[in-house]
Amino acid sequence: MYKIYQDNAELVEDLKSGRENAYSFLIHTYHKKLFVYALSLTNDQAMTQDIIQNVFLRTWEFRANLKTDFSIKGFLYKSVYNEFINQYHRNQSISVLEKVYVEAITEEVNEFNQDLFEKKMILINKEIEGLPSKCKQTFLLSKKEGLTNIEIAEYLNISLKTVEAHITKAYSIIRKRIRKKTHSMLFLLFGIKINHDLVKLKR
């Protein structure tokens, strides 16, 4: 059983000293939370796992550079974001919509507060659950499952215009209820598999 750390400075000091107990505590405490955060950025399980592994590995390798007066939690979240950006930019073909996505991510992380972030995610998911049934189903197929509008139309046996109407309606309802920073949070929750309906709404 590893030691439970209540003090940030003590945890950082033990990490810097190379105590494996501190590293085990770090992984046990933050792995799941960081995975959820990274997955919200990538919308890709494999890429998320790579990011988390790299962050913990580099934290251990460069532990001597950690500062006791810096929040280890904030450091880890920022590291996940930086690793995501590094992997993201290795793809040479970045569309205009993907650039907008990165800008939205940057805005959210620059003001990042884990507690606030989690509250926003809960709030948005609650609003999604409250959408009309067909609207909710269409929205989730698009934004969580990554299906194209044509694929959704075929899957639900409805017209393409109906699909577009449901997705637009979903965004409209969520934006109206949540208002502040909805776009950036939606990007974070559903990744880069977005359609032009979002761009239309932002005009």
TrEMBL record:
Pfam families from the entry?
Answer: Sigma70_r2, Sigma70_r4_2
Q: Where is the RNA polymerase sigma-70 region domain?
A: 26-92
**Domain of life from the UniProt record:** Bacteria
Say yes or no: keyword Transcription present. Answer: yes
Q: Does the keyword Transcription regulation apply?
A: yes
Q: Which UniProt keywords apply?
A: Sigma factor, Transcription, Transcription regulation
InterPro entries registered for this protein in UniProt:
RNA_pol_sigma-70-like, RNA_pol_sigma-70_dom, RNA_pol_sigma70_r2, RNA_pol_sigma70_r4_t2, RNA_pol_sigma_r2, RNA_pol_sigma_r3/r4-like, WH-like_DNA-bd_sf
Q: Where is the RNA polymerase sigma factor 70 region 4 type domain?
A: 126-170
Which protein family is named in the record? Belongs to the sigma-70 factor family. ECF subfamily.
Q: Which NCBIfam families match?
A: sigma70-ECF
Report what the protein is called.
Answer: RNA polymerase sigma-70 factor
